[in-house]
Please model this.
Amino acid sequence: MFHDSILVLNKSWTPIATTTMKRGFSLVFQDRARIVDPENYEMHSFESWLVGGSLPSIEQPPEDERWLRTANLWIRVPEVIVLQRFNGVPRRELTFSRRNIYRRDNFTCQYCGSRPGLKQLSIDHVMPLSRGGRTSWENCVVACVKCNTRKGDRTPEEARMPMAREPFRPSFNEGVGLGVGMPASWERFVGVAKREILE
Ligand SMILES: [Zn+2]
Model:
């Protein structure tokens, strides 16, 4: 899913989207975005990117990197771009799914803190379905089968089973971090790593 993707940062370097290689190059061509070198955080125009990010087409680029072949050149595909003007954070929904709840809660039972593996994990409705609880980001948490059974048709308060944290709807920034197979360079721009750069 990330194979052909470029991470898009807004002007303040907050991750706001992913885009395709084609669209990413187009934003850079139009001078609406700069390419970020994830190694040293230097920003590049298309021209300055070519200085270190291109090879004659007769050469073979490293296989573990993403390169685009044009008529005369191999061009290194950017992993991250930063928008020149846009500074907002568009509201984006992360798909509500069982898998993404597991990821949000880091495959960890929110009641006892154990990580027993997928087969022993379940989704618990904090306010039970039978009592009007909804199936939503805010009412679903990961629970091990043991805790889920123990809690039964009670709220955490009634069962005296405090949660590690309140369930929440993940933002896009957190959602990027949920992705499996995300390029390593992106990790520097999302979640904790991002805050370290900005502070
Ligand atoms: Zn548990």
